[in-house]
Amino acid sequence: MPDAPLVSPGTAALRSLSDVVHQRSRLSVLATLYEAGCCDFSFLSKVTGLTEGNLSRHLQVLADSGLVCITKEFVGKRPRTRLKLTSQGTVAFEHELTVLRGLVDATQPAPATGRRAGNRGQRRRPTPAAQPAVSSLKPG
């Protein structure tokens, strides 16, 4: 009988995640831009909860990687920074989601078989906490 693999296929897929995308703050930025399409800097700062300096640095990393497009313009005399995902950013974010979904699917308990199996051996999953959707906020 062959030895069981040391790493599950779901866990092995984690190796394909990009550190640029997977970092929590940058993932939050990408998720917001993915859902909002395009938004300005102040909206993104509010939604992600990042300070202006911190957000600015993460945006620069994402822009240098070709994942986010940053456009600076003036509205009257006021500067405005507009942000949106590039096509490469969309692909990278969707890859992240696919890998994470695969990991979740791989860790689901197998369905019980037989009449007496019942719920024994199945893990209880916590119910997710209710969080407001990003789409409930309107980009400015």
Write the layout of secondary structure elements.
Elements: H1 9-13, H2 19-22, H3 24-36, E1 38-40, H4 41-48, H5 52-64, E2 68-75, E3 78-85, H6 87-106
Describe this structure in words.
With 140 residues, the chain is an alpha+beta fold. It has six helices and three strands, in the order αααβααββα. It has helices spanning 9-13, 19-22, 24-36, 41-48, 52-64, 87-106; strands at 38-40, 68-75, 78-85. The chain is elongated and about 70 Å long. Helix content is 45%, strand content 14%. The model is unreliable at 119-140 (pLDDT under 50). It has a three-stranded antiparallel sheet with strand order 1-3-2.
Summarize this, please?
With 140 residues, the protein is an alpha+beta fold.
Which descriptors would you attach to this protein?
single chain, three-stranded antiparallel beta sheet, alpha+beta, 14% strand, 140 residues
